[in-house]
Specification:
Blueprint (H helix, E strand, L loop, with lengths): L6 H21 L16 H10 L2 H19 L2 H26 L5 H23 L10 H27 L2
Amino acid sequence: MNTMLSQNKKIALLSIFSAITVILGYLENFIPLPFPGIKLGISNIGIMLSIYTLGFSYSLAIVTLKSLIVPFFTGNVIVKIALGMPASFASFLIMYTYFFLTKNYSSPLSTGALGAFFHILTQFFVAKQLFIKNLAIFKIFPYFSLLSVIMGMLTGIITYKILKILNNY
């Protein structure tokens, strides 16, 4: 996408990507998966789109909105904010740093996989500190991390396809 977007276009894209992120974050709560606690992570599509098109501050705003708004629509606000917010910020910071350092050599696929891994890693550490004091929680970490990386790759592929469409306009 053109790196010299006007302020109006940036605000419009910020609004669109924020809406995508919040709506997908809400909807993914209703998609049944075989393992409890696993989500598709499709709301990260809007965040990755903003990383690749808008930059740090706009993307940070979207992550903040997602972390605060989605839990209020889906219930269990305290737990979801306690687990989701640190994980979302850690994931975003890793994805943005990776994109910034490797933008000419990487793709949303690897960015999504890396972000998903750090999201689940952060959630496990926060859950261990706040809710589950037993180290046995980490016995299931390899399975959750594998699933999260696969889902991160899928959201990366979707992001890549959307970016291709956006770059044609």
